[in-house]
Amino acid sequence: TLDLLEMVRVIADHAAIAIANAQMYERMQRMATTDGLTGLNNHRYFQGIFDASIDRAERFGRKISLLLTDIDHFKTINDTYGHPVGDRVLKKVARILEENARKTDVVARYGGEEFAVLMEETDSEGAVQIAERIREAIGKHPFHCENGLFNCTISIGVATYPNDAAGKAKIIDAADQALYKAKFQGRNQTVLYAMMKEQKKS
Fold first, then answer.
1. What is the pLDDT of residues 133-164, one digit of tens each?
2. What's the pLDDT score for residue 177?
3. Chain centre to alpha carbon of residue 199
4. Distance of CA 152 to the CA centre of its chain
5. How far apart are CA 66 and CA 73, in angstroms?
6. Tens digit of each residue's pLDDT (9 = 90 or more) over 84-108
């Protein structure tokens, strides 16, 4: 009986270790793929997902749209209200992005105050609708600081594969150019890369 009890104890110990290892592995996986502050996908993980999406789109002749967004005057928010408030703004913007994107969209923190939304099987028109929904939701949301409430806006650039560019790097560049134009034109707006190209032609 002692041997049996001992065996049960050993098996239980092994099981406990296996469970702890599995939990640790899961934690490590989460840390490797998730942005610590916002809980969104991190930049590196997002790039991997984007690669796979482009492969699928090429194979099946599908469209992919990319939104690149940037919080307007974020440096001023940090300088005026302090970094803890800046962090709260980043977290809330991340939540609003998640809530207003579709379940199939991939939302990521792209770096600093920049976020990205990857939309498979979505043309420019569909992407702009979601972009505007996100932009309006953020514009309406009151943010809290010690002195009361303040508002925050975002600028968004939209590019679509394969219409605007072929390949991941070129799509990112196109969305980035559109985002820059949104900033340059006065912020708090969505700019479509395709419209920029049309304007250049005319």
1. 999 999 999 998 888 899 999 999 999 999 99
2. 96
3. 28
4. 18
5. 22
6. 999 999 999 999 999 999 999 999 9
How many residues are given for the chain? 202
Ordered alpha helix ranges (H), the chain: 2-33, 43-60, 74-81, 83-100, 124-140, 168-184, 193-201
Return d(Cα 65, Cα 77) in angstroms, integer: 30
CA distances from 12 to 2, 21, 52 (A): 15, 14, 41
The residue annotated as part of the active site, out of 99, 113, 121, 125, is 113
113 is catalytic: yes
Distance CA(129)–CA(106), nearest Å, equals 16
**Tokens for 198?**
């049309």
Nearest residue to 161 via CA among 59, 81, 78, 79: 59
Name the amino acid, one letter, at 27: R
Amino acid of residue 64: I
Q: What is the DSSP letter of 82?
A: -
